[in-house]
Amino acid sequence: VLAGVCLIPEPVKRQLSLVNELYKGQPRLDGRIVGGQRINITDAPHQISLQTHDHICGGSLISEEWILTAAHCTGKDANRLHVRLGTSECSRNGKLLRIKQIVQHEKFNYSNVDYDFSLLQLQNPIEFDETKKAAKLPTESQEFMDGEMCYVSGWGNTQSLLEPRDWLRRVQVPLVNQKECSMKYSRYGGVTDRMICAGYLQGGKDACQGDSGGPMVNGDGVLVGVVSWGYGCAMPNYPGVYSRVTQVRQW
């Protein structure tokens, strides 16, 4: 409380700050999934790492030359970004590729993170193999049930010093009722129709900083959401908020 005014902490977008690049010599936590398990890239071959000089966000292959990620990760300058794909480790192996163009959703609103989508076009199409495959896209009318279990993967913050630093991880989380999630975030304006929530109300498992832009897929491998924002990471009563892919199939 400051001068009689209660200050409400802001929810966080889930990319790693570019300020981290200025402190490469200092120990810090690289971003990873909270409460998840280590997996191989063959378990999530659609997963990519979006990088400057280091990992900042995730993303999903949706074709041989296009990637879907979060708008708050990208800006509009393709020259400063690269994509690493085909590897379980975000800092080495696989292929490091240049981006031809960034198509940020024209309705993206940074203040409330609505329409948090960007498309990245690679300089050259890739060839798919067991480490590089497109995620399945939902139909525009496809519905997902409250409580349906989904999988979120990435190199985001694990909030643990004991976890390996660069290895891909995945966590399983249930979808949360839209109205209930919007009520949980009512002091932040709630969630819009372009958003979908997932997580445990008791906390403990979630995406976190560094996972932004990455995939949330259901048990059939359909891309349900794009990691977007939330209050803290794995906090009780605050499920993760994802950009709802069905809402932009006509984009």
TrEMBL record:
Compartment(s) of residence: Secreted, Extracellular space
PROSITE patterns from the UniProt entry: TRYPSIN_DOM (PS50240), TRYPSIN_HIS (PS00134), TRYPSIN_SER (PS00135)
Keyword entries, A-Z: Disulfide bond, Hydrolase, Protease, Secreted, Serine protease, Signal, Zymogen
A Pfam family of this chain: Trypsin
Keyword Membrane applies: no
Domain Peptidase S1, chain residue ranges per copy: 33-251
Main location: secreted
Originating species: Drosophila mettleri (Fruit fly)
GO molecular function: serine-type endopeptidase activity
Full protein name: Female reproductive tract protease mettleri-3
